[in-house]
């Protein structure tokens, strides 16, 4: 005796059949969502820290500009020239000391025309030493106003005063967990400005020099941090930091230690040192500083000769973005979990509802098999099950009337079941097709919103970059060595702006202005224009327009964009030449017109056919992947359809079907 096989009710099968694809879809959505969110947050974080570095650089430059103005205007003050010539140290002190105090300068002094010090405000008792070898002062004595960043050695700092020499030494707190450097720096990094002092005739009588010491300058780095991050905090901790380096060694930072002191004496890592100080390029990445991971950006600080003498760095707590990613992942998981629970409930309910009439039919069939006749079903369902119930009633009545015709009735029943099965399969095919269309439209809408947001976010920094590049072009002469690099930056900025413009066109829902459009004339005009815009060497254009194709109602500019894009794609698909065919025909027994654009080019691989209308998908090295997506949206907005057929190596045919009335 055969063992009884395990039996599964149809309700269970229907429920499982519904839950399996639902569970797979939810899992894929969760994995894709987490990956996309993580990538998006990481990209935005890197862009943010690059932008923060730009702001920090501007704040650094603004402080240098302020120092420039102070020294320049002091040197140009009416009595400054006469006082320097007179050599009256008390008179010079009366002019320079209030300026140094009020403008918070660390050094301010005056030299005569030969470069000998007349008076220094930080060390009044020392004068007469020669500063003509200082490149800033030497150029100022030649009539220039010079500003920039420089390094003064310990010997020169000692002349300006013991206070500055003491400030230049960077202490290493005992509480710091990191290995201290071999020796604390004794040199000082300065914002330095020198300006000539002239008489009324314009003759150079001497020079003024002033500077701000950056070693241990907490107010300076705090000011830059306040400009960049505006006091933003996370769980009571500042999310951003600003740090200055002399060479590869930290000399000032906003990073606090647990003891209340500030981190000092750290060195740049070998990787950062190689990129920033040796290669003179920016570096963006993760760094472990203090007791936290930071997303940091570094750029070199250059001397007057363009030699890296230090670095400016900004950083943001990585935990800020980690918290954002975790919150978004939790929210996505919650939404998908709720969707899963709802799906399970709906699957169970629908399985029970669908299984009930089938179970009833099973019981009625058992009664008929037991010999009962004229058994009637009372199932009222407007679907194939309802049809099956009606056929069952017919069968039951036929059995009661003619038992001798049971074989013929069974045969008819089998044929009708096959017919209903074929209808069900066709309906399922149409449902799948409709579902794919809906998914494509929803994906286009979602990507459009994302593209609009990305374009908006990129436009602001790009405007700043373009403005700064244009200013840089004005300041760099045409015959300068680095003029070509500046022009290259400007061209690449314009290219990014064109890409952003394409994104905005893709994301923007343009209002359609319907008017009669003559398809044949429109296509002929497009071909004529293309001949003047794109070289057609080796390409033969064949036009077959049916006279039965009249006008359609739609936006002529948008339809021109669609067919121009298809014609250009056909031309670009034939780099070695070929035949480009344009054909119009009315669709038989319908109010539709069909436009075919075919080429004999390289064709499209089968695995890429389902992706050609997806945004940002392209096989062209310089393409953006938006042309066919925009064309697809325009055709759909006009109530039409667009299809593609392609054979690799033989060519591609695009078919656009449009209604006569939109």
Automatic annotation (TrEMBL):
TM regions (residue ranges): 12-37, 328-350
Keyword Ligase: no
Official protein name in the record: histidine kinase
InterPro entries: HAMP_dom, HATPase_C_sf, HATPase_dom, His_kinase_dom, HisK_dim/P_dom, HisK_dim/P_sf, sCache_3, Sensor-like_sf
The entry's keywords: Cell membrane, Kinase, Membrane, Phosphoprotein, Transferase, Transmembrane, Transmembrane helix
CDD domains: HAMP, HisKA
Organism from which the protein derives: Geomonas limicola
Reactions this protein catalyses: ATP + protein L-histidine = ADP + protein N-phospho-L-histidine
Domain Histidine kinase: 453-662
Protein localization: Cell membrane
Pfam families reported in the protein's UniProt record: HAMP, HATPase_c, HisKA, sCache_3_3
GO cellular component, one term: plasma membrane
Domain HAMP: 352-404
EC number(s) given by UniProt: 2.7.13.3
This protein's record includes keyword Transmembrane: yes
Alphabetized SMART domains for the sequence: HAMP, HATPase_c, HisKA
GO molecular function terms listed in the Swiss-Prot or TrEMBL record: phosphorelay sensor kinase activity
Membrane topology category: Multi-pass membrane protein
């Amino acid at each position: 005796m055969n063992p009884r096989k395990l039996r599964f009710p149809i309700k269970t099968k229907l429920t499982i059949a519904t839950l399996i694809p639902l569970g797979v879809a939810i899992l894929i959505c969760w994995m894709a969502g987490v990956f996309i969110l993580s990538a998006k947050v990481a990209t935005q974080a890197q862009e943010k820290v690059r932008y923060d570095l730009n702001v920090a650089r501007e704040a650094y430059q603004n402080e240098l500009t302020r120092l420039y103005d102070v020294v320049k205007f002091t040197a140009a003050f009416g009595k400054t020239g006469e006082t320097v010539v007179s050599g009256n140290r008390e008179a010079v002190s009366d002019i320079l000391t209030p300026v140094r105090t009020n403008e918070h300068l660390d050094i301010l002094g005056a030299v005569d025309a030969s470069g000998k010090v007349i008076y220094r405000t930080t060390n009044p008792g020392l004068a007469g030493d020669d500063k003509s070898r200082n490149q800033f002062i030497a150029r100022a004595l030649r009539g220039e106003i010079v500003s920039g960043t420089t390094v003064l050695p310990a010997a020169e700092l000692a002349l300006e005063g013991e206070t500055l020499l003491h400030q230049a030494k960077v202490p290493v707190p005992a509480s710091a967990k990191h290995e201290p450097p071999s020796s604390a720096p004794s040199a000082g990094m300065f914002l330095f400005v020198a300006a000539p002092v002239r008489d009324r005739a314009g003759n150079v009588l001497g020079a003024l020099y002033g500077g701000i010491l950056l070693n241990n300058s907490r107010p300076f780095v705090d000011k830059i941090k306040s400009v960049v991050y505006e006091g933003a905090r996370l769980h009571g901790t500042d999310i951003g930091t600003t740090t200055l380096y002399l060479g590869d060694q930290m000399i000032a930072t906003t990073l606090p230690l647990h003891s209340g002191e500030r981190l000092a004496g750290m060195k740049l890592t070998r990787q950062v040192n190689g990129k920033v100080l040796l290669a003179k390029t920016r570096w963006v990445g993760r760094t472990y500083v203090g007791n936290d991971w930071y997303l940091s950006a570094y750029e070199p600080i250059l001397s007057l000769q363009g030699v890296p003498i230090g670095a400016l760095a900004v950083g943001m707590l990585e935990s800020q973005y980690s918290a954002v990613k975790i919150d978004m992942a939790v929210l996505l998981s919650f939404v998908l979990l709720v969707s899963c629970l709802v799906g399970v409930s709906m699957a169970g309910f629908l399985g029970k509802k669908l299984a009930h009439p089938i179970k009833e039919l099973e019981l009625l069939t058992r009664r008929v098999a037991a010999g009962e006749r004229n058994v009637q079903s009372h199932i009222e369902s407007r679907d194939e099950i309802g049809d099956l119930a009606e056929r069952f009633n017919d069968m039951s009545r036929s059995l009661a009337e003619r038992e001798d015709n049971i074989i013929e009735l069974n045969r008819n029943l089998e044929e009708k079941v096959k017919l209903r099965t074929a209808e069900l399969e066709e309906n399922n095919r149409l449902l799948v097709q409709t579902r794919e269309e809906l998914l494509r439209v929803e994906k286009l809408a979602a990507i459009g919103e994302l593209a609009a947001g990305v374009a908006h976010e990129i436009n602001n920094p790009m405007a700043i970059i373009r403005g700064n590049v244009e200013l840089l072009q004005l300041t760099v002469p045409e015959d300068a060595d680095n003029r070509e690099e500046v022009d290259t930056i400007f061209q690449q900025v314009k290219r990014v702006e064109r890409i952003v413009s394409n994104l905005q066109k893709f994301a923007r829902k343009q209002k359609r202005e319907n008017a009669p459009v003559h398809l044949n004339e429109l296509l002929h005009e497009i071909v004529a224009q293309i001949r003047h815009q794109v070289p057609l060497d080796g390409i033969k254009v064949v036009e077959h327009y049916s006279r039965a194709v009249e006008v359609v109602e739609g936006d002529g500019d948008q339809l021109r964009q669609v067919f121009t894009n298809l014609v250009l794609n056909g031309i670009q698909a034939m780099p070695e030449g070929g035949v480009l065919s344009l054909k119009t025909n009315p669709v038989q027994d319908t109010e539709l017109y069909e436009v075919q654009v075919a080429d004999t080019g390289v064709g499209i691989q089968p695995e890429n056919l389902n992706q050609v209308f997806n945004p940002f998908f392209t096989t062209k090295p310089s393409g953006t992947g938006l042309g066919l997506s925009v064309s697809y949206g325009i055709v759909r907005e006009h109530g039409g359809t667009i299809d593609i057929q392609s054979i690799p190596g033989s060519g591609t045919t695009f078919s656009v079907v449009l209604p006569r009335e939109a």
